[in-house]
Known about the structure:
Chain A is built from eleven helices and 13 strands. The first copy, chain A, is of the alpha/beta class. The first copy, chain A, has one domain: UDP-N-acetylmuramoyl-L-alanine:D-glutamate ligase (3-Layer(aba) Sandwich), CATH 3.40.1190.20. In chain A, the strands form two sheets. Chain A has a nine-stranded mixed β-sheet with strand order 5-4-1-8-9-10-11-12-13, sandwiched between helices. In chain A, α4 links the parallel β8 and β9. In chain A, α1 (50-61) crosses α9 (270-283). In chain A, 55% of the residues are buried. The interface between A and B is medium-sized, with 32 and 32 residues.
Amino acid sequence: xxxxxxxxxxxxxxxxxxxxxxxxxxxxxxxxxxxxxxxxxxxxxxxxxxxxxxxxxxxxxxxxxxxxxxxxxxxxxxxxxxxxxxxxxxxxxxxxxxxxxxxxxxxxxxxxxxxxxxxxxxxxxxxxxxxxxxxxxxxxxxxxxxxxxxxxxxxxxxxxxxxxxxxxxxxxxxxxxxxxxxxxxxxxxxxxxxxxxxxxxxxxxxxxxxxxxxxxxxxxxxxxxxxxxxxxxxxxxxxxxxxxxxxxxxxxxxxxxxxxxxxxxxxxxxxxxxxxxxxxxxxxxxxxxxxxxxxxxxxxxxxxxxxxxxxxxxxxxxxxxxxxxxxxx
Amino acid sequence: xxxxxxxxxxxxxxxxxxxxxxxxxxxxxxxxxxxxxxxxxxxxxxxxxxxxxxxxxxxxxxxxxxxxxxxxxxxxxxxxxxxxxxxxxxxxxxxxxxxxxxxxxxxxxxxxxxxxxxxxxxxxxxxxxxxxxxxxxxxxxxxxxxxxxxxxxxxxxxxxxxxxxxxxxxxxxxxxxxxxxxxxxxxxxxxxxxxxxxxxxxxxxxxxxxxxxxxxxxxxxxxxxxxxxxxxxxxxxxxxxxxxxxxxxxxxxxxxxxxxxxxxxxxxxxxxxxxxxxxxxxxxxxxxxxxxxxxxxxxxxxxxxxxxxxxxxxxxxxxxxxxxxxxxx
Lengths: 329, 329
């Protein structure tokens, strides 16, 4: 264990962390079961969307934060923009569509923990992103871009992300990537190529499950990490859910953090909160070990609340959570 | 009071009653309040959409019934198609869109009885109707078309409706019109012209509130009725909500029906259910007075259940309701 020997990500002072992608409301079934074919009880709308959850936690942690996205001209859009604004996210590049509704996701947990969804994303404002003057103005002052794998589902978000990466890297900024992918999605040739190209550009990778192996093309952990370092990745933070997390820096520095023991109410958003806190901490100059602890705490705290970003914590809330929560041994 | 002296509408034996338009799910807030800007409790999805409610009640009453519409390839679509099919509606001309989601409406009642909505209709499957082979096959065997004023909101539904009216009238069928309109909507010149042309083609008109006056261009009841008869309308059934209903035939026959005394749980769909039952009864050969009683009963029974078409009744259920429910004096 060492302190962080290198600063992998551009410091917060270079400009905000930005992410591009879907902003949604989530409507959650109150009781477990299958599907949505008869009237059931729901609670919602909760602000949601993987990039939105990430950036909200990033801002709450104290990192400069912004998002490129779009909502409809309806209450569901306001739910999101108000929350992000309240939590300190720069919302100047969130467009409000007069034609398309805010994206939505109905979620119902099955008794085995799997989930059923009814989505409206592809035909919602979330899919209608454009490179506007507001986006231009924002991107040219950002210091870091965080890419969510969900970007592959939206051609518009992908186009903006690609251009934004170039602009931000050209001014000395950095890039992190949360693959947020499943193997099935990668079998489309084009996505596989795009993903490989993104991995090569990433300074920081935040995989979970088999994503590490998908990114590396190697199916055991240490060789996968070595392969990714050879591709130019500088740092890898591996999310292991209840089992905590590990981080590796190509300088040889590494850290482990055991999982916090919490009662899970709603697992949605845990990985996104981990990422938001981790990236914010690293950009604020914290060492890997401390960033890992905050990332773990952010993910663990978030699952204790119903709603995908309801448990995102401020730095003070996460410090309190860390001090008062037992960890797996 | 007389028996019905003329058969205004084509008999059921000529072919089903068809309607064209939006099929939606409705998600209803459990408690009264304003808007959707924080998480609240909902119940849903309920099958909905004014044309769908109308046609479901028409079928439950025993009338031959069909609908032209579209849903998404999701559970919310299945909620609608399964319900309509179960209740005897011909669903052969309901398209299933692989691109667009099923239309939806979130509804919240305010304490004063007014309602807030978040809709997704314009960018849903509900707005993507096409004149398919299935629509062609259906329309050419229909005996009556019921037009909902909501059709003006959808260019695609309007185009199909216009053509369907011509086809059905050419084979000896008839047309009914539920204006379902507000004055503000009529101020768009084109809609006003379209509406006037529809009124001229209507055999039966089913107005509520000020719609009678909008249709006639005359603002007192008896002169408005006379003006409409002069325009070719044969029969007018006026919906008066809690105060019941009245019907006038141009032969001079007329009937009144007092309102049923019920505890209102959810007013949505009452007028549509009235129309579905009334049209079915008239096409089944019942006199105006009896049709009016069934129409009133269908509307009144429907408001006792949560969900826009949950209270639609079969003939036996409505007969039972009529026998057991007190009326306003």
